[in-house]
Every structure is written in structure tokens, then in C-alpha cells.
Design brief:
The complex is a heterodimer of chains A (about 350) and B (about 450). With about 350 residues, chain A is mainly alpha-helical. Chain A has 12 helices and 6 strands. Chain A starts with a helix and ends in a 5-residue tail after the last helix. With about 450 residues, chain B is of the alpha+beta class. Chain B folds into 3 domains: about 70 residues, no CATH class; about 210 residues, Alpha-Beta Complex (Sulfite Oxidase, Chain A, domain 2); about 120 residues, Immunoglobulin-like, CATH 2.60.40.650. Chain B contains 10 helices and 24 strands. The chains are: A mainly alpha (about 350), B alpha+beta (about 450).
Chain lengths: ~350, ~450
């Protein structure tokens, strides 16, 4: 009996407890207050009105130093590189800085769209560099370095002079010189809400028509024959059973009516023998961000691993040294920075390359 | 169309090498001369070794031995002992399905960590994307994050800045909903002209899952968010790129935006943001912040990198549309589609997907003559708001060249535009939000190609 009584008492207490908690909130026991220290560490966003921008400054000169050691590998010495990411600098003029509209954006024959041609706000550059750059080591730049790199980029685009020091005090003045600051519009129906005074009616108005809706259609665009196999053999990219097969694009489509040969019954499974040692090395290439700049077979920023293997077969010590110390001038203009990985792992990678960089 | 006219269009059966290459050549040389019936004879003859009756021969004709060897000779799996339970602790697809892979589009990006892989829409059924085939878009690589160490913070215009563990998020009342996610740049390479061969590459930055999680509004209310003055919410990821996007308040207060941990009955996959991602129904994928670590309530928009440099739509006058978020009404035929081969005339099921970021799909029409004449397709159930819908339509291919198109309309009445209509207002340089009607050319030889029509 006493057990039963205790249970009743327990339930009553529970009821009281939940009543008490209900006064504190709907879901008692879930979540806690964030400490100021925690919020300061994570709340790093900077808005166009510069809310969130930490006090500080950085010079164009300092920015150039940081740029050359941490940014140029991917973005080029002048931000012009198109090897890894879209170019950052170029395409803007002194007149654009006056008008706030980048004239080249209205030209359909202008070849590229650089970051500085598009971005309307300095806050965006600062925020993004601070949170996500350098690409392989995000959030490692000091506040001064972020100001400095931003200043250097703005100088490359002739928005600030060579001797400029960008700071939280003058960023608004610089933002008022951004070449594309007047290039944005929210007059469209693709924001759900009224915050931007957006339109509510979509910009296209197709109608449901069922019969004789248009004249005889003509094919205006299709892939050229030389691109037939550009995405790999399509026969190996479609299920092997069903109402259709994938086209065997490893063979040309003959002019006189194609025999549409299709894939063989067995899917293209890779059944190479396991090479665990090579596998471990290849996995470490990702871990140490080697693959950010080196392809397996092809040049990205630096040479492909098999290309290095051909040139430096058997030279384990040389390769291990190069990985640790970095280098330049062997394969192209962009130097490879020194890599901070354990000696033993650098050696394993060097051995793997020296043996041909196979998978 | 009466079902009497429906006959099987499948002629070739696996294994595929029962016709010699010269035999195939002969068949298609003949078909080019307009003697399509020859195909039937030749295929049937090759399979059976004798002249088969004409007139829509069966796709699996009776062989001369009096029966199919696959029936007459019992296979090993009918006469032996199969494998035991839990041979695979986590089951995998059949080895015969290995052609279905998410794939990169060659030459599109220079690195794999800032890149995209496309889902194989050409071979998927229904509306749910298998989690392992869900398209990927990473800006700075993906991670497999220990959920016991992941935290979620709410701050800004709130009474109390708060942090939650994943345990705590999972204790709260949850919802489970089906939604599509489409990258704003899906079909981007096709703005100006045809650039890629298959629906995997034209439309494969599209997936649909059942997501489980807590409505974001629940967490904002817990923190005492000032929803009167706080008109904008920033969402931020916890990985290297720490993606940030301004999230429309309308979709938060409606309870639609979810802080999700579940996907198709299990936890999110690491490539899709394990352990927490934001689900923003109807809005382009870049706003569905993965590895979600923080939301901030504010009174102004944020103009983040992917709102002020990318994911803006360049218009013919040189202006960019900023904060363009919604994925408007769109559809595509997934079979028959580019890169596929139909092996004979006869019956086919035209099937495809339709979706709208503004609600449910109301109807889908399909044309086999490049948009001159249309027939209404069957919408399969369930038809859900801001989720993929599957449509089907019976079709008997007469062996002549044709152009397949689909045209969707959503519940707001908005009809998917043609390329001409879309380009008339947005030009060809927008990159994002291409929702034009897709055309697939079915050639006389059965090969289907990606085309655009004038």
C-alpha cells in the first residue's frame, strides 16, 4: 500500500513541478541562457549598416603582405585568377565609382563578372573574408588582417589609394564609393513577404493552351557532336532495366541513322584490387587540404600528383622536403606555401608520389 | 486513348547483347528508310532465331525452344540457399543499380569542396529522393560533426540569448513534412543554350525528402524574440564557410521553417548538414543552412556574400535582383529524357516531376509535338505544398521524331514559362532561377536529346 501511496504522492509532486515550470516557459528544462562570452565568439556577422563590425584598422600595404602569403595561391597576385575561383578584381571604372553602377554589367559581350563588379557593400567583403577565408583555414585571420586584405582588394579596384588605412571609422565613406552600390533591385516577386516592398505578381504569365498553341517548332539549340561524350558514357548513368537504356555515347552517332547501342547488362562497378596504403594516403590528401590546389592527374593551381610523380619519380626526400617547406618556380608562377602537417604524413605522401601516385 | 491501343514498347531485354552490332546497324539503317516494322522482324528473329509474326511483336517473344531459358532453366537463386539476416547491418541498393550515382558535371568547378553533385533524376521513382542520392552543394567541403558537441544559438533581438544542445532540440515537439529543395542555380547552364545532355545535369540540383524537426518559431518564442521590430532572421552554419542567409520572416511565423535533424526516417546525412539544418520550404537551397549553429533576429537584412555577390539574378539592364529567394513553378519530364534510348515504337509512360515554391501543383500538361498540342497528365498522390509532385501520361510512340515538354501550373495560378517568355523579361545571363519549359527531342532512331526550340 505504501508503494501505491508513494506513487500518488510522486504524481502530485510532478504535477506541482510542471505547474511551477509552466510559469517559467512553455518547455521547461530545454535550452539555457547563452553567456556573453559565447555570443561574442559566434556572433561575427557584419551588416551593411556595420552593426557587428569590430573596431580596428588595416592598411593596403599590410594587406598586400597577407594577400601574397595567404590569398594569391587561389586568387592570383592581383585577384585576377580564374584558375580556382571566379576573378575578384577587374571590370570596374572610375566612372562606375561615381555613378554606383558598373557599366560592363549591361554589356552582353563583356566576358566576366568579377566580385567587385557585383558587390554593393564593403560590409559583405569584410564579413565573408572574416568568416570563411583563407579557404583552407577559415576564421584564422586577425581583425587587422581582415581590414588590411579588404583594403588591398579595394585598392586593386582603385576605390581607395595605395596609402589607405581602412577602419571601422571610415568604412561607410568607402562603401559610398562602391562601383555597383546602386546596382541592386528588389522589384521582383521572389521574396516571400513585404519587407523589401517587393512585387507580388510574377514577371512571366504563360497561359494554359491545349490545341494549336504555336507554329511548328524548330530545334534551335542542341549539343554539338563533339560534346557527345563530354559527360562520360551516358549508358553507364542510367538504370539497366526499364523502358529505356542510356545512349552509348562512347561511340559516335552515325549520320545515316544511329544504331543506338546501349550499355551492357552489368553496371560499371569499379572492382580494382584494394590498395589500403594508397587509400590512406589519398584520404590524407583531403585531410591536409592538398586537393584544394592539386588534382590527381591534372593541374589545378599546382600540378597534378601523377604529373609530379612523372617528374620526380623515386625522389622521396626531395618531395617530403618540398611538402614541408613549400616552394615555387618549378611548375608555375603561384608558389606553394609551407605545409604544417606531421613529418611522418608528409613522408608517406612523398613516398606515394615517388611511386607513381596510383590509387 | 483506349487501353486497346497500348502495347508494350519494350523489345530489348537484358542481357543486351542478343543482337550483334551488325544486326543493330542493319535494323536502324532499315528504320531510317521508314520501314519501322522491319525492326520487329529483325529483333524477333534475332531473339528467336526464326522469323516471328509481324504486327507489334511481343517484347519478349517465345523462343524456338518453346520457352524462355530464364524460365526453363531454374537459376541458382531458385535452387540454392540465400544469404542470412543482417549480412548488411545497413542495407545497400542492388549491385545492378550501380549506375545510379550523384555526379559532378565535368568542367563546372575546379575543386570538389566548392562544387555540386547532381541527383540522377532520370532513374528515380515517385517523389522521395533516396538520401544517398540527394544532390550536394558544398561551399567549403562537408563534415561529419559529432552531434554531442554541436550547439544551436538564438540571439539578437530576443529577450534572452539562448543555446540548445541537439538533445534539447530533439526533446521539443516535432513536425515531419515533405519538401523539395532546389538549388537556385539549377538549370543555370541552360539559360543561353543547351549545354548538358541529361536531366541529371539540367535539373539534378533538386531533391525531395521528408524532414523532421522543430519549427524555428518555437525556438524564437522560447528566446522571447521581438517579432514586431525584428523583421529579418539571419541563419548561420557551423562549418568552414559558415554560410549566412537572410530568412524570410513570413515563412518563419507561418511555422513552415524547420530546424531539422531528420531526413527520410533517419538523421540527416552528413553531406546534407548532420546534425542540424534549416528547412526553408519553397526557397532556394542556399538558404537551407547546413550544420546550423545560430540564428539572429534583426531589424535589417544582412547582405551576406551569397546575397550580394552570388545568388543574385542579373537582368538585361545590368541590374541584379537581390533577395530573390522563391523557386517558382517548374516541371520536367524525367523519362523519356536526354541521353536515353527508346528501343521500339509502342506504349510508354511519360513521367516527370513538378514543383512550386509557392504551394501545391494544380496541374501538369504534356506535349509530344514541341508545344503545339497538349494533354493533361495524371498527378499522382500525394500532392503536397512545396514538395515534388509526380505526373504520368500514357503515350504511344509512333516511331516519328517528336519533342516532349511538360508545363506545370501551381495553386496560385502561375504557369511555368517558355524560354521565350522567360528570356523576354530576364535575358539570358541570370544564372539563377531558370524555370523554363524543358524540351526533349525523341529522334526516329529512339535516341532522346536535350534541345531548345524556337
Amino acid at each position: 500500500m505504501s508503494k501505491f501511496r508513494n506513487a500518488i504522492m510522486g504524481l502530485a509532486l510532478l504535477a506541482l513541478a510542471s505547474l511551477g515550470a509552466a510559469q517559467d516557459g512553455k518547455y521547461p528544462g530545454v535550452g539555457r541562457a547563452a553567456t556573453p562570452k559565447e555570443v561574442a565568439k559566434w556572433d561575427i556577422d557584419v551588416r551593411p549598416d556595420f552593426k557587428g563590425l569590430p573596431a580596428g584598422s588595416g592598411s593596403v600595404a599590410k594587406g598586400q603582405e597577407v594577400w601574397e602569403s595567404k590569398c594569391a595561391q587561389c586568387h592570383g597576385v592581383f585577384g585576377e585568377s580564374n584558375e580556382v575561383f571566379s576573378p575578384l578584381i577587374g571590370g570596374t571604372t572610375a566612372k562606375d565609382i561615381q555613378t554606383g553602377r558598373v557599366a560592363n554589367l549591361s554589356r552582353s559581350d563583356y566576358p566576366g563578372r568579377t566580385t567587385l563588379m557585383k558587390v554593393p557593400t564593403v560590409s559583405t567583403l569584410w564579413d565573408y573574408i572574416n568568416r570563411a577565408m583563407p579557404w583552407t583555414n577559415p576564421k584564422t585571420l586577425s581583425t587587422e588582417e581582415v581590414y588590411a586584405v579588404t583594403a588591398f582588394m579595394l585598392n586593386l579596384a582603385d576605390i581607395v589609394p595605395e596609402n589607405y588605412v581602412l577602419s571601422d571609422k571610415n568604412m561607410a565613406d568607402v562603401q559610398a564609393r562602391m562601383p555597383n552600390r546602386n546596382g541592386m533591385s528588389t522589384q521582383h516577386a521572389m521574396w516571400p513577404g513585404k519587407e523589401f516592398g517587393s512585387l507580388s505578381k510574377p514577371d512571366t504569365a504563360n497561359k494554359i493552351c491545349m490545341q494549336d498553341c504555336r507554329p511548328e517548332p524548330k530545334v534551335a539549340s542542341l549539343l554539338p557532336d563533339f560534346a557527345r561524350n563530354a559527360h562520360g558514357n551516358l549508358a553507364e548513368q542510367t538504370r539497366i532495366v526499364g523502358p529505356q537504356r542510356g545512349a552509348d555515347t562512347s561511340r559516335p552517332e552515325t549520320k545515316a541513322g544511329t544504331p543506338p547501342s546501349t550499355v551492357t547488362a552489368a553496371p560499371a562497378t569499379v572492382t580494382k584490387p584494394d590498395n589500403n596504403e594508397a587509400k590512406a594516403v589519398v584520404a590524407s590528401l583531403g585531410k591536409y587540404n592538398c586537393t584544394a590546389c592539386h588534382g590527381m592527374d591534372k593541374k589545378v593551381v599546382g600540378p597534378g600528383f601523377t604529373e609530379i610523380a612523372k617528374k620526380h619519380a623515386g625522389k622521396v626526400d626531395y618531395l617530403a622536403g618540398k611538402i614541408k617547406a613549400g616552394g615555387g618556380g618549378v611548375w608555375g608562377q603561384i608558389p606553394m606555401p609551407a605545409q604544417a602537417l606531421p613529418e611522418a604524413d608528409a613522408r608517406k605522401i612523398a613516398e606515394w608520389i615517388s611511386k607513381g601516385a596510383g590509387k | 486513348m483506349s487501353d486497346d491501343s497500348i502495347r508494350s514498347g519494350r523489345v530489348q531485354k537484358a542481357p543486351e547483347n542478343f543482337l550483334s552490332r551488325t544486326g543493330i546497324k542493319e535494323v536502324f539503317a532499315e528504320s531510317k528508310k521508314g520501314r519501322r516494322d522491319f525492326i520487329r522482324n529483325a529483333f524477333a528473329a534475332a531473339a528467336a532465331g526464326v522469323a516471328a509474326p509481324v504486327a507489334m511483336a511481343q517484347s519478349n517473344p517465345v523462343p524456338s525452344e518453346g520457352g524462355d531459358s530464364n524460365i526453363l532453366n531454374l537459376p541458382e537463386h531458385a535452387t540454392g540457399l540465400g544469404q542470412g539476416v543482417a549480412t548488411e547491418g545497413y542495407g545497400k541498393p542492388s549491385k545492378f543499380e550501380a549506375n545510379l550515382q550523384r555526379r559532378q558535371s565535368p568542367g563546372l568547378t575546379q575543386t570538389t569542396q566548392s562544387s555540386v553533385s547532381f541527383a540522377p533524376l532520370q532513374s528515380l521513382f515517385g517523389i522521395v529522393t533516396p538520401s544517398g542520392l540527394h544532390f550536394e552543394r558544398h561551399h567549403q567541403g562537408w563534415w561529419d560533426i559529432d552531434p554531442s558537441k554541436h550547439r544551436f544559438m538564438v540571439n539578437g533581438m530576443v529577450k534572452k540569448n539562448m543555446v540548445f544542445t541537439v538533445d534539447e532540440i530533439m526533446r521539443l515537439p516535432s513536425v515531419s513534412r515533405f519538401h523539395f529543395i532546389e538549388c537556385g542555380a539549377n538549370t543555370a547552364v541552360e539559360w543561353g543554350n543547351v549545354a548538358v545532355p541529361t536531366v541529371q545535369y539540367t535539373h539534378g540540383m533538386l531533391s525531395c525528402s521528408e524532414f523532421t524537426g522543430v519549427p524555428l518559431i518555437t525556438l524564437l518564442e522560447l528566446a522571447g524574440a521581438d517579432l514586431k521590430n525584428g523583421k529579418f532572421v539571419l541563419a548561420e552554419g557551423g562549418e568552414g564557410s559558415s554560410m549566412t542567409r537572410t530568412i524570410p520572416m513570413n515563412l518563419i511565423t507561418s511555422g513552415e521553417v524547420i530546424v531539422a535533424y531528420g531526413q527520410n526516417g533517419e538523421m540527416l546525412r552528413p553531406e546534407n548538414g548532420y546534425p542540424l539544418r534549416l528547412v526553408v520550404p519553397g526557397v532556394q537551397g542556399v538558404s537551407w543552412i547546413k550544420y546550423l549553429r545560430r540564428v539572429e533576429v534583426g531589424d535589417k537584412p544582412y547582405s551576406s556574400k551569397d546575397e550580394a555577390i552570388h545568388y543574385m539574378d542579373l537582368q538585361p539592364g545590368g541590374q541584379h535582383r537581390q533577395y530573390s529567394n522563391l523557386q517558382e513553378v517548374k516541371s520536367v519530364v524525367t523519362t523519356p529524357s536526354g541521353g536515353q534510348v527508346l528501343l521500339d515504337k509502342g506504349f510508354y509512360n511519360i513521367t516527370g516531376l513538378a514543383w512550386s515554391g509557392k504551394g501545391k501543383i494544380k496541374r501538369v500538361d504534356v506535349s509530344a509535338d514541341g508545344g503545339r498540342n497538349w494533354r493533361q497528365a495524371r498527378l499522382e498522390t500525394p500532392v503536397m505544398s512545396k514538395a515534388l509532385s509526380r505526373f504520368n501520361l500514357n503515350w504511344v510512340w509512333d516511331g516519328k521524331a517528336g519533342i516532349l515538354q511538360s508545363r506545370a501550373q501551381d495553386e496560385t495560378g502561375h504557369v511555368q514559362p517558355t524560354y521565350q517568355q522567360l528570356r523576354a523579361v530576364r535575358g539570358t545571363r541570370s544564372i539563377y532561377h531558370n524555370n523554363a519549359i524543358q524540351s526533349w527531342l525523341v529522334q526516329e532512331n529512339g535516341e532522346v536529346k536535350n534541345v531548345q526550340v524556337s
